[in-house]
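Tokens for Ferrochelatase. Go.
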Amino acid sequence: MFEVQNLAPDTDTRSPDTAVLLINLGTPDTPSPRDVRRYLAEFLSDPRVVDMPAWLWQPVLRGLVLPWRSHSSAKKYEAVWMPAGSPLRVHTEQQTRDLQSWFDARGKRVIVEYAMRYGNPSIAAAVTRLRANGARRILVLPMYPQYAASTTATAFDKVAAALRKVRNQPAMRFVNHYHADARYIEAMRRHVQHYWDVHGRPDFASGDKAVFSFHGLPSRSTELGDPYYSQCLQTGALLATALGLAPEHFRVTFQSQFGFQKWTGPSTAETLAEFGSEQVSRVDVFCPGFTADCIETIEEIGMEGRDTFLAFGGKEFHRIDCLNEAPAFIDMLGEIALENMAGWSAPARWRGGRSTEVFAAA
């Protein structure tokens, strides 16, 4: 431990030099086909997302995928677009404001910003803004509870790229995952239980089902060592236990499959069709891997998933919102951030007529 002498008095008027950067996946700027195409081009050109040689994939992407998918996806974005913008961006902005208020209420001098891995606001722009505001220490907190190379790792890649040409770099720390954190599980338990308090709990004894749907991942990623699949299964099991569900009451599934390669399963769409054909009276779907509602939860689950379940004979479909701005989730983010920033700095104090700021080695 070493000390840095500071003649300035110890007051809270100093600009904060520690920051938390929340990172989510991304969204187009508008639901127009042009903006959706631009967003998808960036997203699907990431080699961590599509693990194919660029010389082979790019002609397919530019010539086949983007012309077709940009228009079909634009219609889906239009169906969920909010007056203030994309649901993912609206919720992420509010989470950022709420987390900033959480730190402020506890007297913590911390700047909170957010960025999107694809689209705007970009990670590079957010890092530049934080540095301009005096941040010398930045904790990167991805909004992905489960670690995947195609989400968490690529966010870290982009942060590193943003700092590549910076001579005086800030100190950086990264949160890898929190898929089994007891506070994350408890936040979800409270959230789901509150929904059931309002809308009634499914009659599991009579055959009603809960579905915990996670974003899918190519099976090859798991074979190469990605822990995402096992972490999703663990999250689902812990949440089910917290909610008092028996194994036959719930199923962990995976959605958003793309392309022709093998993906992790079981498929959410196929599971909903199966439950419908079995005349299951009620299905409640919750997406533990998404911390903010977006096109995948609102449209894919709440619209397409509902239609599939009902078309195959199901009776009652419920989509439970993501955690979004749930107070317990904001508490969890704040506590995880403080734990990961531990040792960066201790409060300044007076010593011998001078203010001494003590920094502990991380």
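The chain has two domains: 18-179+327-340, 182-319.
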